[in-house]
Amino acid sequence: MKRSLLRRAALNGTGLLVFVFAVFPVFWMVSTAFKPNTEIFSTTPKPFPSHPTLAHFDLVLNGGIAEVSFWEYFRNSAVLALVTVVVSSLFALLAATAVARFRFRFRTTFLVMLLVVQMVPLEALVIPLFLDLKKADMLNTLPGLAVVYIGFAVPFAIWMLRGFVAAVPRELEEAAAIDGAGPVRTFFKVMLPLVAPGLVATSIFSFITAWNEFIFAYTFLEDQDKYTLPIMLQFFFGRSGNAWGPIMAASTLLTIPVIAFFLLVQRRMVSGLTAGAVKG
Amino acid sequence: MLDTAPAVKRTPGRRSPGRARSLRRPRFGPYLLIAPTVIVIALLMFWPMVQIGIMSFQKVGNRQLRGEPAESVGTENFKTIFDDPFFWQTLRHTVLFAVVAVSLTMVVGTLIGLLLNKLGTKMSNFVAGGVMVAWATPPVTAAIIFTWLFGTTGGVVNWTLDLLPDFLVGSGWLDYNWFAKPLSTYTVLTVCVVWQACPFVAVSVLAGLKSVPSELYEAARVDGSGPWRTFWSITYPMLKPIFLVLLVMSIIWDFKVFTQLFVMSGMANRDAFNLSLYAYSEAFGSLNPKLGMGSAIALVLTMILLVVTALYVRVMVRQGETR
Q1: Angstrom distances, CA of residue A15 to CA of A11, B104, B136, B240
Q2: Is B3 helix (H, G, I), strand (E, B) or coil?
Q3: pLDDT, greater one: B215 or B112
Q4: Which 3 state secondary structure label does DSSP give B71?
Q5: Is a pLDDT exceeding 50 seen at residue B22?
Q6: ipTM here
Q7: Confidence (pLDDT) at B16
Q8: Domain architecture of chain A: domains with CATH
Q9: This prediction's pTM
């Protein structure tokens, strides 16, 4: 009895330790963002700010860094992410329906293709896509970037969604068909409501893909007022090396929405990524 | 957590075609449904891949960017690369980093997964939530945070190392610059990447562990098997498919790591380049862009990853993922 209690305590202790190590960097980011400069560069750093200040956030939000207001970058990032989410979800839903509901020639080819493109090093594609977008006159535009993000988000979204579509009982669709509903109506009245949770999960994934993306935005965008948040952050970081307070405040603003979304859907994400590898 | 997996298995594959047709959908239906995806992937992934292949045999620079046709240079780009010791240095960095980061990710991730499985439900969810925060952090932010943690002035890591007894870690840590040398830069990069990557491994392993019948573990306990032996005789064989997928994905992710290294050490610090950064800097790094050279390096990277991808696809097909 006593031994098992001790074991339990040791396990929980290790668990807490893992937790502390895992969240420490993010905690330190937030904590630094609220510290006045004297505390940030103090020779004895303290975990929590003794005199918390909003000065760094104020500076970031009101254009004190990089001349343009933070909200401009926020809007760029949000619009890009939103467009990516809507279009890629639509494409993914169509393709997932095809894969989960039909057997057709090239179906396996299509699925293998989805696997392969998820492994393509995007860092390599940046060179030809730069030239292609330049030719199409879409370099240095947000729509150009959106097109690229859609391409990157769709394969994984299909891979995740097809499980959700396959889980909808076929009998429901058949019943709707017997009741005289055409394929389009069946899709909207039966399929869509039932795969909605899956759609939410994949949407958030696509959102994060677009929100976090760095290399393409960095390469394609030239005008500062078109920058997305990660580019703004890197730009600011590169220019003002150790203004850690504002840098951490900006990092916090960029990170918090993603972490919130992520915690909402992480379960789905794992099952999507390793789907089937774990079926027992 | 694994809800999609059984569903996938139940795809209506072995049903009679007559039933599928009872839905009265046109026969070209599925092709219409996948058409947008196929077009997007063809335009944004396959065609650019082909372009990389073509451009790696060409000279593409400022004149071509102004619209002049590219000149073919045969295999010159590759000759230049393979003769250049700098290329081999970046390849060495890439491979060594991948080996260390992947091993650490797999070991630490698996250990955390095992721990999560042993903890009570509440504690397990709590710790998993914390670990998830690391996974969710955007790569740019992660790189910046770690630069700050390992910073010279006010960096909390140097401060901690300085507090530790000298016989353990040596002295003089307070003004140690982690980003002055490639080895220490890569140490920070490894910590940063492993910190972000092991949650995925941990959660996947946890998901797998939940699917292992508990009778197996009870039997092992009755037979007096210790934790080490239990892991290698039960957990590992049962979770082998997951480990394979995780391993392949980690290799691919760590091989092409770009953002974190770019933010931490930058384009100016050539000594710390890996393949991705080298390709990028050839293509975009100077006022005299060499997109052909960049493509050739990117092609080498892609070829290496293609081998790993082939392994991945084989595993997935074997596991019936594409049925």
Answers
A1: 6, 19, 19, 25
A2: coil
A3: B112
A4: strand
A5: no
A6: 0.86
A7: 43
A8: 2-53 (no CATH), 60-273 (1.10.3720.10)
A9: 0.86
Instruction: Give the pair of three-digit tokens for residue B297.
Output: 């390096």
Q: What is the pLDDT of residue A270?
A: 56
Residues of B in contact with A150 (CB under 8 A): 40, 44
Asked if A272 and B4 come within 8 Å (Cβ–Cβ), the reply is yes
Beta bridge partners of residue B72, listed in sequence order: B58
> Is A151's CB within 8 Å of B305's CB?
no
Residue A116 tokens, joined: 């392969």
Which has more confidence, B1 or B276? Answer: B276
Identify any residues that bridge with B58 across adjacent strands, giving them in sequence order: B72
Burial of A51 (C-beta count, 10 Å sphere; 0-12/13-18/19+): exposed
Helix residue ranges, H only, B2-84: 4-9, 17-21, 29-41, 47-55, 62-65, 76-83
**Cα-based distances in Å from A140 to A145, A158, A222:** 8, 29, 6
- Give dist(CA B180, CA B193) in Å, integer: 19
The CA dihedral of A93, B199, B154, A246, to the nearest 10 degrees, is: 10
| C-alpha distance from residue B188 to each of A25, A224, B183, B216, B264 (Å) | 13, 30, 9, 40, 9
Running along chain A, 280 residues long, what does each successive block of 10 average in pLDDT? 81 92 94 89 83 87 73 90 94 89 85 84 89 89 93 89 82 83 82 83 86 93 88 85 86 89 68 42
Residue B205, pLDDT above cutoff 50: yes
Which residues of B fall within a CB distance of 8 Å from A210? Answer: none
pLDDT of B29 over the 90 cut: no
- What are the tokens at B222? 């009755």
The enclosing H or E element of B236 equals helix B236-255
Interface test with B, best of A18, A114, A152 (most B CBs within 10 A): A18
Q: Which CATH number fits domain B86-318: 3.30.750.24, 2.40.50.140, 1.10.230.10, 1.10.3720.10?
A: 1.10.3720.10
